[in-house]
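Chain X:
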Amino acid sequence: MTRCKRVLALLLMPSCLLTGCALRSDKLADGAGLSVQAQADAQKRADIRLQLATAYYAAAQFPVAVAEAAEALRAVPDLAEAYSVRALAYAALGQTAQAENDFRHSLKLMPGNPDFANNFGWFLCGEAAGVRAAEAIPYLEQAANNAAYRSPARALVNAGACSLRVGDGLAAQRYFIRAFQYEPASAVTNLHLSKLYFDQAEFERAQFHLGLAAKNEVLKVDALWLAIRIERKLGNQAAENDLAVQLRRRYPSSPEYAAYQRGAFDE
């Protein structure tokens, strides 16, 4: 946990008689010690509240996460991580103005933090039905290009998804390819690439990436339907039939299975 650092002001005492200086110096030392202890206690309270806020956010108890983050900030007002967690909780609650304010505050306190940049970028990407997606991409790029970031593929996938929202398929493909280079086993990345290659009529590439996705994740209905359409385009009737059996067994009431029954493979 990153701890906030503060500089303690040094109080300059006026000149004093030799006989009184030792006593006053001792009192100053004691006061400084109490101040340091008070800071340590405040930081400890903030850390505990921040951990609780993070846990409540992960458990989807967003109002409680907001309250715990506020308590962390009451103890340490410049705790960037608390602003970031509270922003995520506000966003989940649909309180977008409060969320954006906290996202920006966290980045003001820690402008180089790639997690904060990625989270804010993804928030902007989803704002107002995606109309702020273009505004989001610089934040996502900032996160992805940070050499210290442990999850560059996450930011790249988010940038790819945002590019799709603004209708830039070529940029999206570039982001997804970069994400694939970092995490070639990622089901999310491979599904995105499979869909893009299918739309470009590059069916063997689409099949390759969907196969990688299927190795690490049970295909959901949209991915299973895509797999059927790919095999049909490639003329692999046996593979298509096997996938259709899965679609019927697992998703019998889905629009995708209804489309399969109609033979609507190009809708």
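Chain Y:
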Amino acid sequence: MLEWTIENLAREGVDDVILAVNYLGNMLRKHFKARFKGVRIRYSIDPTPLGTGGPVKQAQRLLETEEAFLVMNGDIISEPPIRSMLQAHRETGAVATIALHKVENPSRFGVAKIADRTRIEAFIEKPKKSRAPSSWINAGIYIMGPEVFDYMDAGRKVSTEREVFPLLAKKEKLYGFKYYGPWFDIGKFEDYMKANRELLAKISKREPLVGSGVKVPRTTRLIPPIAINGKVEIGDNCLIGPYAAIDDRVEIGRGSRIAQSIIFREAKIRERSSIKDSIVGEHAVIGAKARIRRVILSDYVIVRDEVKLGPNVVVCPHKEVDRSVIKPMNIK
């Protein structure tokens, strides 16, 4: 997700990114190092979770400009038009400009009450659909001026949405920017799968997207949209797709079927297995003739031969499953 975000920022002309990290911070630093896709990467380490505003305040010391800056939530997928949003921010004289995205059901989100075309009067948090003041929600993408730091106390947990934005709204310094592009909050399984489907359709609408070193026998069929990364090995008589995303060095045994699923790197799927509407984590092993339906398998999971799983079964990391489970369950 972060790679996708940084690549899009680079295309918009961003060349300096600060990652505000706590959980898995060392892993992110090891992965991205100091540069990625031509973008300088720096790290602001939060010693304890500081909410949504505390990390922004913590990163203040790394900002090398008194100009406006961009803030993005790390758990969304989007392609915001940064230049247009920055121009709108400057024209209104806002302290903060929030990207607003229109959704069919705003009851899961903070919903903007809009006045004077783009000025935001207030946010109503998770209202009933019938009582929502609009269909425009907080998209988790902000342009902020340096004045915003005056509204954040250093070293404490701060909620941007509940503390900072209401004060700015009262002072008529909070504005919205209506964003119509792709936007996914992938905090739920269904939303994560939907995001993958739509992005696959964008990059592989008619032809499979296949990386270097992938071995596809003549007897195997690839049905787009589908994306396969490098050095994947696929056996004879397989059917892969539609809406399958397969990461590096995955092994797929002969006669297997994979559709509407995400298979992470170095997973091994034995012969004549079937996977649909599921996520398979890194280094997971799926036994021969296994049947997986609407399941999340974490990293290093082992599923034995002929086991059936799903729907809504979740298997935690490093677990071995040697019996069928067809009722919703977390296997810990």
